[in-house]
Amino acid sequence: MKGKLYVVSGPSGTGKGTLCKALLALRPQIQLSVSCATRQPRPGEVDGVHYYFITQEEFLRRRAEGDFLECAQINGGYWYGTPRGVVLEKLEQGESVLLEIENNGAQQVIKRYPQTVSVFILPPDRMALIQRLVDRGTEDLERLEKRIGKVPSELEAAKGYTCLVVNDQVAHATARLAQIFDGDLTVLPRERETLDRLVQEFADPQRSLALLRDYYQKSRMDFELEVRR
To answer: Which of 94, 110, 200, 213 could join 2 in a cystine, given CB atoms 3.0 to 4.6 angstroms apart?
Structure first.
C-alpha cells in the first residue's frame, strides 16, 4: 500500500467521532472511510456521510462476497463494516485513509495490515465515560449495560495499539491526534498511566454497572423534573 492506513478506536462514549471530525478539519488531506451499518440513523446522522445505512440482507450478501475490509456484529445485533474496494483504491493512490471503527473491526484490520497505525481513545476516568454514554441519550439502560460490559476487554486490547490518546479536553486530544498523524508515535507516560488506571477502575464489573445504573436513574429523574417545570 502506498498510502498510510490509520485506525481510531475505543469504547463507546470516548468521543471518537468528535475527535476524528476535528482532526479532519486540521488535516483535510486525510480521507475518512465511511462504514456501512444496518441500524437506523440517529438524530442528525446523514446517509453517506456518517454511515451508509443498508439492510441486514444487503450487508450479509456483501459480506459473503468479501466486500468488507472488516466487519462485526455489535451492540444491539447490528452489523458494521468498512467497504474494502474504496479504501484499497485510495491507499493505492497514495492517500492516507482514516477508519473510525469499533475494537473488533480494528483488530481485523491490524491483523490483515500490520503496518496500520492504530490509535485507541481513552476517557479520563470511568465516571466520565459513564456520564458521556448516558448524557448523549441515544440508548436505553440495557444497551448501555452491554457497552459498559465490553470496556474491560477493550482496555485490554488497547495495550496492543500503536498509540493512545486521552480525551479529557477535545482541543487537547485533537492536537495530540494530529501529532500522531504527523508521525509522532510516542506513547506518553500520562497516556500509559491513564490506561493502567482505567484497567483498575473497570476490574470490578458489578461496581461499574452499579455506577451506570445510579447515574442513569438520576438523569431520568432530573429530566422528568425539568419537564414538569
So the answer is: 94
pLDDT computed for residue 227 by the predictor: 47
Collapse the DSSP code of 228 into the 3-class scheme (helix H, G, I; strand E, B; otherwise coil) and give the result.
helix
Average pLDDT (142-147) is 94
Query: CA 28 → CA 23, 89, 98, distances in Å?
Result: 8, 18, 11
| Cβ atoms of residues 106 and 33 within 8 Å | no
pTM over 0.85: yes
Report the pLDDT value the prediction gives residue 138, as an integer from 0 to 100: 84
Q: How does strand 5-9 pair with strand 97-100?
A: parallel
* Partner residues linked to 8 by β-bridges: 100, 119
Mean pLDDT of 125-135: 97
b/e sequence 118-155, b meaning 16+ C-beta within 10 Å? bbbbbbbebebbbbbbbeeeebeeeebbebbebbbebb
- How far is C-alpha 135 from the chain's CA centre? 17
Locate all alpha helices (DSSP H) within the chain, ordered by sequence: 16-26, 56-64, 84-92, 103-112, 126-135, 141-158, 170-181, 189-201, 205-228
- Per residue in 76-91, pLDDT (tens digit) is 689 999 999 999 999 9
Look at residues 42, 215, 75 and name the one whose alpha carbon lies nearest to residue 149: 75
| Pairwise CA distance, residues 170 & 165, whole Å | 11
Mean pLDDT for the stretch of residues 150-170: 97
> Which cell numbers hold the place of 188?
506518553
Residue type, 198: L
